Request: fold
Amino acid sequence: MAAPCVFADDAYLIAAFPGVVVLTPETWLVTVLAAQVGTYKVLLGAAQYPSIADADSTVTTIADGLVTALGASLLAAVSPTGDDALLVSQVVLGMPLALTVEGPAVDTIEATLVSGGDNNVTQRAFWLERAKCGLPPCCVFTSCIADFTLMHAALAAHLLFVFGNLSGTGGSASNFQSMILGPATLNKGVSAWSGNPADAQLDTTGPGQLYLLLRSRYVLPIFCV
Reply:
């Protein structure tokens, strides 16, 4: 018995087409909840920014120490807010800040994402669901069942690029024939799939082209059982 076809999920979609994720600059609120002897840390990925507390430390001095430590980061800007907290704002786009915090004990420090980050989770889920209706039947994929999953991700990515209103941090597509950019002129080549308007539209993005390439490997019957 052939293995069942598996639809792509969000993690698969992002792994195959990272450009579908729309990232906006993150702002985090880091709050020192209690003063205890030990090390308080803000971590940006693998980079650690510590503030060491002794018996005389207060939540204010610990927070000030974190502000000073984070001043060495090239990924984020930091500023104090209130007596016990600091704001950490992303300045370099391209990947999440991956901000986490550690304290000498539980409930001594916390971090809350105030704004920014991955901003199109809902749109990705919407187009992953809609793309399911544009796939050939599972029984076609007898030689390579994994092509079904990749085709699903490719079609969802194509729909996101064309209709998902992605920002400059994600992908986009335009069905142009000619474009002038300063002294340069770009003329679009003729689509290899121009015999079918729907296929020609798929040919406007990289994921759409991959979908067409994968589909061309199979003879699609009217129905199969």
